[in-house]
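Reopening this ticket.

The earlier resolution said the output was attached, but the attachment link was broken on my side. Pasting everything inline this time so it's all in one place.
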Amino acid sequence: MIGGAVLAIWFDVDPSGEHEVQAWYPRQHLPERLSVPGFLRGRRYAVTSDGPRFFTLYETRDSSVLSSPPYIERLNDPTEWTRRSLSAFRGMIRSVYRRLAFAETDAVATHVLTVRIQPDSGRGPYVRLWLEADAAATVRGLAGVSAWATYVAESASTSILTEERRIVGEVSASTPFLALLEVADPDVEGALREFWPTWGRKIAAETTVNLYRLMYGLAWLPGGTS
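Inline output:
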């Protein structure tokens, strides 16, 4: 994982607008987002089993990029194609996260496992401490995981009401913490799905685990992120 923050979006699409969304994403939306200063990489995924059908991940220089004037200006001036496409979005979950810990090696695998983490009452500090200080020793040893990162939510960056937000309608915030695992071998999904709920029971947190298959992505070349 690159950059100090991510914008994570889970969503479904109304069947009547799916063709529009499928064409809009790679041809306009990803290039448009990557034109905003501080956006480093964008990826779109499709779910492999249960969970919201699609997942989009934007990696940014830091969380301030996601409340910056250039980004907010883009959100408040959607194209007609964007308006048509966003109107088909359903059940969107959207949150900005600041990175806590990460693997030293960046690797974009064929799949990503998203782990949304909701601590039990009063357990937030303990969950954060594990994700920030102790996760590396455990997560890097999980079979099939080629890279990983853990995150804490930045609520201020998602509270701004923009024109794009108005078009989508109701948007839910995700959990206070997030773990992302790059998975090169989807056959390890079962073991990973067992690990996180077990960990959650021990630390007193609820985990929502979904595996997504990479559809496509777009990134700046090295040296092109300034």
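Reporter confirms the inline version is readable. Strands lie at 5-13, 39-47, 54-60, 89-102, 111-119, 145-153, 177-183, 205-219. The radius of gyration is 17 Å.
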